[in-house]
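Hi everyone, sorry if this is the wrong subforum. Our group has a chain we'd like a structural model of before ordering constructs, and none of us has done structure prediction before. Sequence below.
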Amino acid sequence: MTSENRIPISGTDQKQHGFHRLGRDVRHGTLFLLGAQLASQLISFSLFAVLYRLMGPEPYGFLGMCLPLILILRSMSTLGLDVVTVQRPQKSHDEINIFFWLLQVGGLVSAAVVAGCGLLVTRFGGSPAAGWVFIAMSGTVLLFPLSVQHQALLERELKFKPLVMARLTAQSVGGILAIVTALLGHHVGALIVQQYVELLVLAALVWTFESWRPGWPRHISKVARIVPFGIYWSLSSFVLGLSQQLDKILLVLLAGASPAGLAMVGMYTQAFQLMLKPIHLVNAPVLRVMLPALSRAVHERTLYQAFLTMFYRMVSLTLLPCGVGLFLVSEDLILAVGGSAWMEAGKILKLLAPAVLVQGYFNMVAGIFASVGRFDRLFAGAVVVTSCILLSFVVGAYWGLNSDSVTTGPALGLATSYSLALIATVVPYTLFSWRTAGVRARPILSGILRPLAAACLMGVVVHFLQEEVEFLGSLPAVARLALLVGVGASFYTFLVVRDIKSLWVGFVEARDYVSDTSRSSPTGAQSDR
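Answer:
Right subforum, don't worry. Here is the predicted structure as tokens:
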């Protein structure tokens, strides 16, 4: 393995053994989750393609009216207790039990808020159908906390295989039943069914895979010291949620009153979801491993630095080419997945694509703050960053309203402002987290520069093919997309093959380490073999 990818260990023999195994568990878990997340995204794209063509954008517009509020409330309702469960390995049954019941209370309150908003929209908003969608979706907010604590326990113990199995199964079953419901003619209902089924199946499976069971809450005073962390995390989640969702809320207010505007809301929200696909592909598995790994290595500064450098290399190697590539092939991607009815979404996706370059780094910051227990600084940074992003939304909305189209204009303005604001704020936000954690910037930046240069060169090659190879224009969108992605991915892989090999060596070492029968660790890590 190259020196930049090697995990340095120091200390006593017992400590060396524990951290050496933690390092291998982390590499193994991260690479396994990257593969599993790829499978998840392939399933998701397949389901998207079928549902997009069956229903068109308007049903997604109805869903897009209530999802921003639901997503903000979901993240707030956890109170940061899932993060605390992962971040602090030693937890008593009583503490975990109280966390579980607090999560349920948060879900109940959030569900009541969503249902109340639905009643207001039905009575005063002039759109009874949209109000009933709010009310129907409120139950998903109640179901969401049922699986949160069990997922956190599986993540804390690095038991990724059953967790991935549960998520893939839930996603597949929910998507299939949504397609069946759409074929029966219930288009908005299909999207609601998909949400309920995914959450129910996920809860049932993680409760099967994780043996912990809640009891009657006792000794509530034991978690009093956690309350400040939960408050800071909830406030940070709310503030950062605004930065991710206010653009959709503004678009609903500006353009959602007409059928054409409702369709544009559907296009914007789904273009945003497609933009997030490569980010979720990489960030989701990395962040699930990153928080427990960094939390356990927080008192070993060399190990902490090495872990963080490795995580940034993984994110850079995969997200940077995705951002460049998505910008170049966004319109072909929309045509291939949704057909001509979704063509306007291609322009929106193109403007959102630059955000892929930095959104992954942006998402990692919360994990860095959480690993060192500085939720107060996370909140402070979130307030500053979100203020900048919200200001950019105001500018983007104003520009859009003064454009030629009252429906397309605001969507394009908001997409542009989101990408530019994220690019402008990610550097100071990230440096603030590195300084808080006490890590050096140079090793991390050196791991980013090579993939960045390779991604830019890949973009030049793909753009040359688009502009200079005439026969590509006559190909169907699916064939053109496959050809461009294939050439771009092959060229990029050739440029970074050394970096990919170094990560593969880490995976092989982790696989060979299965023969180690010792499962004890001074850091509290447990491998999932």
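For your construct planning: The radius of gyration is 23 Å. Residues 56-218 form one domain.
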